């Protein structure tokens, strides 16, 4: 029996309903992840460009575009267990360039930025309240890394009551194997994993008066 047959028979991989009030959450496209002069970063220029294509359309249609970044105060560094496991993240200090959103994303001054301390954009933040307050029914999640903060955000988004879409070409990781494995798993259990062309076309139908 094939792997896909096993998942199908278990009832996974069903299609996610799409609403009429989407938002885009761009996870951690900050310089600490996108500028390869930093050891925590990887080349993400194509994923940033694909994401910007979607955020430009969403913003023009009046849909929320929200960015996230990880930023720590020096006093937190010795207290957080994640930083003992992923010690490289300790370089993401508040006020440094590493935590600034990469300008190539096309971020605007009025776009919301959620600052987080862990992988999920929901844990310990106001993101769920912001989305609910904006009457969002469908969440498009992009960003970095696919196997880390994107996945954690997707899982928490579903658990927070949102239908979730993940354009694969808008997500980046440091290695192909975890990227592909986590896209597969998210598609089976938590989200529809699709691509930027599909999301772009869908956003245009919602923006059409």
Features:
209 residues; alpha/beta; Rossmann fold; 7-stranded parallel β-sheet; 8 helices; 7 strands; 16% strand; hydrolase; Isochorismatase-like_dom; hydrolase activity; Isochorismatase-like_hydrls; Isochorismatase-like_sf
List the helices and strands and how they pair.
Blueprint: H1 3-9, E1 22-27, H2 31-34, H3 45-60, E2 65-70, H4 82-85, E3 112-116, H5 127-133, E4 138-144, H6 146-159, E5 163-167, E6 171-172, H7 176-189, E7 192-194, H8 196-207
Parallel strand pairs: 1-2, 1-4, 2-3, 4-5, 4-6, 5-7
Question: Could you give a short description of this structure?
Answer:
The protein is 37% helix and 16% strand.
Q: Your description of this structure?
A:
- This is Isochorismatase family protein.
- InterPro entries: Isochorismatase-like_dom (IPR000868), Isochorismatase-like_hydrls (IPR050272), Isochorismatase-like_sf (IPR036380).
- Keywords: Hydrolase.
- One of its GO terms (molecular function) is hydrolase activity.
- It comes from Salinicola corii.
- The protein is α/β, with parallel strands linked by helices and 209 residues long.
- It has a single domain, classed as 3-Layer(aba) Sandwich (Rossmann fold).
- Helix content is 37%, strand content 16%.
- The protein is built from eight helices and seven strands; from the N terminus they run αβααβαβαβαββαβα.
- The chain has helices at residues 3-9, 31-34, 45-60, 82-85, 127-133, 146-159, 176-189, 196-207, and strands spanning 22-27, 65-70, 112-116, 138-144, 163-167, 171-172, 192-194.
- Strands 1, 2, 3, 4, 5, 6 and 7 form a seven-stranded parallel beta sheet that branches.
- β4 (138-144), α6 and β5 (163-167) form a beta-alpha-beta unit.
- The longest helix is centred in the first third of the chain and has 16 residues, at 45-60.
- The protein starts with a helix and ends with a helix.
